[in-house]
What we know:
This protein is of the alpha+beta class and 196 residues long. It folds into 2 domains: 8-126, PAS domain (Beta-Lactamase, 2-Layer Sandwich); 130-192, Winged helix-like DNA-binding domain superfamily/Winged helix DNA-binding domain (Arc Repressor Mutant, subunit A). It has 8 helices and 5 strands; from the N terminus they run ααββααβββαααα. The model has no long low-confidence stretch (mean pLDDT 88).
Amino acid sequence: MADRALTATELAEWLGGDLDNALDAVEVPAWLVDSRGAIRWANRKAIDIFGLPEGRQIMDAVGGESRGRAGAELTGAVLGTKPVINFTATVLDKQGNRIAAEVHAAALKGGGRVVGVFGLTNLGDPLPETQLSDLTPRQFEVLQLLARGHSTDQIAGELHLSKKTVRNHVRGVLRALGVHSRLEAIVEARRQGLIE
Length: 196
């Protein structure tokens, strides 16, 4: 072997294996997008669930309530300000059903610049369609972060909002769910199946 650590591609070739076929067979949706967010490759699982054809925009598979967050995260990866991203989102399968998901991705570099993003999507449970009618997409994002134990300051930092705006969204969440506290909001949202 060489004096340096081999890359995954080099090691697979050295072992005589095919990394492309291995990635295609992984039972987790995997995808590769270019710097404009167009899908350039998706494994079989991603195609089976999302119907992600080459050239389609990755954001087409993101639910409206998660578009702001997902767009900001993917933009950060493409610009190189966030070389690794991990966030929760609502994704849409090819029938339009909403599914809770964790997205894990990393910037793909070539020639010293970011040329795309490689990612994996861990899928959770399907979400009920009718429950979100009273929440705006941003309020739903705030609710998800509240459920993860985030403070007003943390939510403001993560969503790039002012603390005042976050507090306004929290009030909107409380009003929409008919509750009086953040804890009650989380309990009610879980009861309705809005969050895990």
